[in-house]
Amino acid sequence: MSVTQERVYAAARAFVEKGLADHGWSFVNIDDGWEIYGQSTEPKRKQNGEIRTNEKFLNMKKLGDDIHALGLKFGIYSSPGPLTCGGYTANYQHEAQDAQIFASWGVDYLKYGLCSYQKFMKDVNDPQELKIPYQKMHRALQKINRDIIYSICEYGLGNVWQWGAEVGGNLWLTTGDIWDEWDRMAEIGFNQQQAAPYAGPGHWNDPDMLVIG
């Protein structure tokens, strides 16, 4: 992946310099690629179990501080499985420890993608199975001394809008990925009615990215 600490900060500066921050664009999120790649021979964690960043993200605390200094908020991405969707090291069996390190970096937003956790599931459409990994990270986030927006990303499986708030989600992806074709945008955009009644203050539906340009 081409994402780097410098590019993330450059995007944050552009939010301010181009006036986007004045119109509600307040979160700068890294969507995967900051961790050690799963197939790398490098240690994925330090001896104490703390997750390691790769050579493109040498100081996450500084990145968070720099983004906050611009008046913006800092978001990150991970997964309850061993690997993220991009094949990078994720949070499996380190949820509490990773929640603490995210807080120490100044993270304000966590997007949590189901990804490789699916291999532990018998039925990926079973709400009871789907709740387990998200409840686990929610409990970890409750124990840290920082408010982090919790974004559940499991592609709308198991009618997540019916139970996302129950497991601590502030938002939940209601669909699979969007892409820049009208048919896909229309398919997603015009099929959100069933989820609408479950949105409310502090918890809302996420029909994926706003495709522009």
Automatic annotation (TrEMBL):
CDD domains: GH27. Signal peptide: none annotated. The keyword Hydrolase applies. One of its GO terms (molecular function) is alpha-galactosidase activity. Keywords: Disulfide bond, Glycosidase, Hydrolase. InterPro entries: Aldolase_TIM (IPR013785), GH (IPR017853), Glyco_hydro_27 (IPR002241). The keyword tRNA processing does not apply. Its EC number is 3.2.1.22. SUPFAM superfamilies: (Trans)glycosidases (SSF51445). Pfam families: Melibiase_2 (PF16499). It catalyses: Hydrolysis of terminal, non-reducing alpha-D-galactose residues in alpha-D-galactosides, including galactose oligosaccharides, galactomannans and galactolipids. It is an enzyme of class 3 (hydrolase). One of its GO terms (biological process) is carbohydrate metabolic process. Belongs to the glycosyl hydrolase 27 family. This is Alpha-galactosidase.
